[in-house]
Amino acid sequence: MATQPAPRTSNRKIGLIFGGIALAMLGLGYASSPFYRLFCQATGFNGTTQRATAAQAAQVKVSGQPITIRFDANVAPGMKWIFRPEQVTQDGRVGERKMAYFYAKNTTDHAIVGRAVYNVTPEQTGAYFHKIQCFCFNNQRLEAGQEMRMPVIYYVDPAMLKDANAKDTQEITLSYTFLIAANSKG
Fold it and tell me: What is the model's pTM?
């Protein structure tokens, strides 16, 4: 005759299993954001742009294909900055390094640290839009009433011309939204 395990031991075992599952799900929840960010950076998914070094950019061959870059600037609700591109569009050629400037002004009586989030549209061009230098790589601190010109140096990778989903793109919109990263009075 088989003996039944004591109910106390069986309940403890089930509790440990479900506790382990809960911890694993919590760990996956924390890991999902960094993994998603890495995935987007590697693939250009959801309009995520790429980063390039000056040395990498120097190796890029400029094509004859014209491209227009449209610049869009926004601030998050409650952020008291004026933020805009100095020019709304910039014409160039695929593979050509270009520089654009954005203007920002803190309209408050205290310092604000902001962080720019960005994307490009159409989304399928994100994998080909490379930034060499950008104010969006770091937090930006503006003192009360301070104004600043912020550059972005970029190029569109000629590999885009071989992508059936992106090769006919004539205009790319680079969009930034500034969010409050930290707010300090003083």
Answer: 0.71
